[in-house]
């Protein structure tokens, strides 16, 4: 069994549950700057090996991999430290929030020979997995276009102090999920443009950056896609709409994966229409805590996939390169919001001397 250290015990809670329930991982240490957070998780999981010092966790030679769930702006530094200590790394999304760190990270991962996996959790959720499987099996033919959205009433999130800092952007924190879906199916996005605004609710809550955004994308082969996000207002009833949804329109069929609703619909190439709604046991596997606030099942799926990649020596995706590609796209989207013009991804990559 591989040994795991977990850094950041807010969302890291899901990973604690995932590791404790997995036959492929042994949780060795959990770490948070806040001793209170450590104590809370120790009590919750009856697991008492914790430290408030990341350095101490990294010094433990027995730990094979570190899973990072600190605020976005700290990811680059925490990934660098882990690689310098010879650990494999799982880093939650968004991988980094500034491409200025990308080159050094890519070089460091090459030098270290360690694997880096980006925790784009939504790919590992049941409806998204099924949609991908059907797509790869050719059920909807070739992809024509993809539409993805992530809309949520995240006013509760504004209680976290870092949510109100000018460095926090829903563009990275929220849209990284649907944008990852776009890149999963259309990796070679060449150009993007979009509009965004800060809603009245967002202003009132103290947010500094856009909380409502619509973007369109063009891939190098001419195919197009779109994404939208809105984060500070009520959403539709779940029977009518989904907070997070991905629609694939193909040459011979179409499919839609709805996230929290655990719902998937497909019209396949034979013309058959199918709707799958997963039941309670699946729901319990994915959402183990109150409400649907955490994502333990998705994390267990990706932790186990990453364990296999270490033991069988293959690359688990999204890897660092793919994670950086998504950040480059997010950064191009950010620039498009500022300039009101279409932005080429290559220009962003060139600015940082990156060839992916
Ligand atoms: N579906 C997903 O994949 C998903 C969902 C939610 C959050 N996230 C990501 O997880 C990350 C954390 O989000 P959160 O909601 O848990 O935030 P949070 O503020 O609740 O938790 C962050 C924790 O990190 C700790 N921390 C901060 N600096 C530290 C340091 N230097 N060393 C050790 N611990 C430190 C804080 O004390 C805090 O407990 C973000 O990057 C977020 O985007 C991913």
TrEMBL record:
Task: Report if keyword Oxidoreductase is assigned.
Answer: yes
Annotated keywords:
Oxidoreductase
Q: Does the keyword Oxidoreductase apply?
A: yes
Q: Which residues form the Gfo/Idh/MocA-like oxidoreductase N-terminal domain?
A: 3-119
Q: Where is the Gfo/Idh/MocA-like oxidoreductase C-terminal domain?
A: 162-345
A molecular function GO annotation? nucleotide binding
Recorded hits in InterPro entries, A to Z, give:
Gfo/Idh/MocA-like_OxRdtase_C, Gfo/Idh/MocA-like_OxRdtase_N, Gfo/Idh/MocA_oxidrdct_glycsds, NAD(P)-bd_dom_sf
Q: Name one Pfam family in it.
A: GFO_IDH_MocA
Q: Which PANTHER family match?
A: BCDNA.GH03377
Annotated protein name in UniProt: Gfo/Idh/MocA family oxidoreductase
The protein's organism comes out as Pedobacter aquae
Classification from the root reads: Bacteria, Pseudomonadati, Bacteroidota, Sphingobacteriia, Sphingobacteriales
